[in-house]
Each structure stands twice: as C-alpha cells, then as structure tokens.
Amino acid sequence: MRSADLPAVIRIEQLAFSSPWPLEAFDDAILQDAWVICSAEDLLGYIMYHNVLDESMIINFAIDPAFRNQGHGTALLKETLDIMVAKGIRTFYLDVRASNATARKIYRGFGFEDIGVRKHYYSLPDEDAIVMAKHIKETA
Ligand SMILES: CC(C)(COP(=O)(O)OP(=O)(O)OC[C@H]1O[C@@H](n2cnc3c(N)ncnc32)[C@H](O)[C@@H]1OP(=O)(O)O)[C@@H](O)C(=O)NCCC(=O)NCCS
Fold it and tell me: How far apart are the first and last CA of the chain?
C-alpha cells in the first residue's frame, strides 16, 4: 500500500465497516506493513498488520463489496501471511465480530483458533469480539 492508494482504500473502508477508521488513522506509518490487491483497473481490497517483535496483529482487512466471494480476500491473506512468516513473525492475532461468519471461516481455514472474547468490544451495533490466534510451528 502506498500513499496514492489511500483514497481507494478509504472508500472501501467506509463501505465495509459500520464503524470505519477515521481518516487520520490512515497515516503514512500505517503503510509499512499494509498491502493492497488490485486488478488491472481497480484496487480490490487491502490488509494491514501491526508487528511487535515476532508477533503480528491483523488490524484491518477488507475487500470492496463489488468484488467479494471471488477468492480475493483469501488470496490477499495467504500471500501476506507468507510474507510475514518470512519476516520472522511466529504468532498472529486478530479481533473479529462474533457475527462475521465469512471472515471467521476464512481465518479458521488458515489455522487461526478462537482464544478469547472481548465483551462489547464493537459498537454500531454493540457486539463481542472473538480473539483469534495462529502460531507458526518451527520447522528447523
Ligand atoms: C472478509 C472479507 C475480507 C472476505 O473477502 P472475500 O474476497 O469476499 O473472501 P473470499 O472470496 O476469499 O471468500 C469468501 C467466501 O467465498 C469462498 N471462496 C473463497 N475462494 C473462492 C473462490 N475462488 N471462488 C468462489 N468462492 C470462494 C470462501 O470459502 C468464502 O465462503 P463463504 O461464502 O461460505 O463465506 C470480506 O467479506 C469483507 O471485506 N468483509 C467486510 C470487512 C470484514 O469483515 N473484514 C474482516 C474484519 S476481521
């Protein structure tokens, strides 16, 4: 993700979430571990990670509603998880709305497991967050 991508990213953010990030959250610092998926014409979606040592939190992930259910979310997650593992990340975390069956199914498919609940974490509407984690097994 580059600065020039931000207008398209922010448009998708506002379509994808009932409580979108405020514009000022999309500053240059966020671009370090953030990726977009694009066709020849369009920016289709994005994913953002926040890394601390060998741990990473997926902090934002969305596909344009017009391009969902075509495998783009799965492809973006797969490719970027591989990049993060190559960078030395060994544990991934994320929060997801309890009702977000599509996202939870995708994450489970990548080996994420439910490890906890944050009660009333989300607003608009009020909802619990499921905390999910994925540990990378050392092969050496
Ligand atoms: C979650 C999200 C990013 C998934 O993106 P996506 O591009 O639609 O995801 P995929 O197409 O890879 O997978 C979605 C579904 O299509 C299926 N699928 C995956 N690859 C597929 C393919 N090649 N062809 C057809 N279907 C496919 C998946 O199994 C999944 O099944 P489901 O319909 O039973 O849920 C998207 O729904 C989104 O932006 N949601 C709103 C924001 C959000 O919830 N973000 C996550 C916050 S934690």
Answer: 32
The contacts of residue 99 (CB under 8 Å, 6+ apart) are 127
Please identify, by atom number, the ligand 1 atom nearest to the C-alpha of residue 64.
Answer: 39
Q: What is the mean pLDDT of residues 80-95?
A: 97
- Homologous superfamily in CATH for domain 3-135: Gcn5-related N-acetyltransferase (GNAT) (3.40.630.30)
The pTM score is 0.94
70 lines ligand 1 (CB under 6 A): yes
Q: Given pLDDT bands bounded at 50, 70 and 90, which one contains residue 29?
A: confident
- For a pocket test of ligand 1, which of 106, 130, 132 has the largest count of ligand atoms closer than 8 A to its C-beta? 106
